[in-house]
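Q: Is it fine to ask for two folds in a single conversation?
A: Yes, each is treated on its own. Send the first.
Q: Here.
A: Result:
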Amino acid sequence: MLNRRVFNQLILAAGVSMLPAASLLADASTQKPNEQPFKLNYILASAMYGKLPLAEILPEVNKTGAEYIEIWAEQHGNQREQIDEMGAAAFLKLLDEHNVKLGSFTCFKYGIFKMQSEMKLVKQLGGDMVICNTPKPLNGLNETAAVKAFAEELKPHLEVAESLGITIGVENHVGGVISSIESIHLLMDALPSEHLGLAMAPYHLPQEPETLAQLIKDLNTRLVHFQAWEHGDGCMTKLPKEQELLQLPHRGPLDWKPLLSALKEIDYLGRTEIFMHPTPRGVPILDTTAEVTAEINACRKYLDGLL
């Protein structure tokens, strides 16, 4: 079976050479594909370990099947602040020692309109993305007008991201301008840049597998970061640990098969982050580092098994 990208390349080749596309497809079908089977590209969220030192978290990255780290700031973690304390050079040395790459920063505390300095630091550290949620809609604006106003305000920040080769991942978040599926589509239409896309948080969307899968397919290359995170029993009040963990794939009730099928259909090349929020924020999701890593691996085994 030819995947979407190979098919498109063949159609383009047919148009350039004026050869019948069918004959090209026939020739290609006899070739052995060199592509590896589709798999998820994992990134580890530092906040899953609360506010533990980076020196303790980075050795866990490869153990979770990831090669990238995502750095979280207060209140969810404090690894962003740890980088300031140790300095960029020391952080780069730690990354190198543990064979880890920086993927992205998630820094809600700054706000999306104060991320330009973060973009520059991410670039300096070898990363390629900053992720933030969006502010509340301005009073009196309907959804369409609110997204339009937000997009206009974001344009100069997007220009900086484009100049640096950094991507802005906008997280859909309850209460923000970008929270509904319609608002996501409106934003993507308003800012058609390859340096802006959705950092998709299924937790904050309807827990309907086919709806979530359709959004993935609609976004296609505008899906730039994907959190394997479901709602479960929520994360806003303190719950018994077993209930709190229902935010994780393999524990919660969400059927992940349609979502994974959609990711495979679009040949998703972005990073996938197994994620949840503990209550209170800033603590590890489980008591020990080993337990956190084991739980992430249980989720990964489940997701990979579905693929």
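Q: Second one now.
A: Result:
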Amino acid sequence: MQEETLAMADTRTMGIVHSALRRDLTRASDALEDSTAPGDTQRVAIAQHVQVMMDFLDVHHRGEDDWLWPTMRGLNPSASELLDQMEDDHLAIVPHMKQVTAAAAAYERSAAGREALVNALRDLRGSLDPHLRREEDDMMPIVATTLTARQWDDWEQEYYLKHKSKSELGMEGTG
């Protein structure tokens, strides 16, 4: 048990979560940009899914901002510059997330909002994609060598799993 407690954090789930988010954002954009406009049922489903993705991203970033980044600062002060960048990225992404959420809500009500949602998603990706890549390539290797597997697992449980129903976990593909 001692060995398990001291094992390095396995941060591969971060890449999996990010990949799923990128995949779904790409699929939504592709469906919206298709020359054939989505029908009403598909339009509403796309709009609702985009809103769920923005809620998910907000929770994801809050878990990092509330626990992961402060914990890393305390345990690994040499990572402060990169942690500053992670926090700055999150602040820069928030207005884009709000724009996407508002555009998706408008598109859910009316097909006339299609182009605004396409543009909002494009703007979001311009700030989100480089952040996700930097987090995976630069931050997660530092996290993996700073946190133990137990710390990482406890964080995921506390911020992302324990407060969700089995249905919610199933919808996210984590249950």
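Q: Anything structural to flag on that second result?
A: Two points. The two ends are 25 Å apart (CA to CA). The mean pLDDT is 91.
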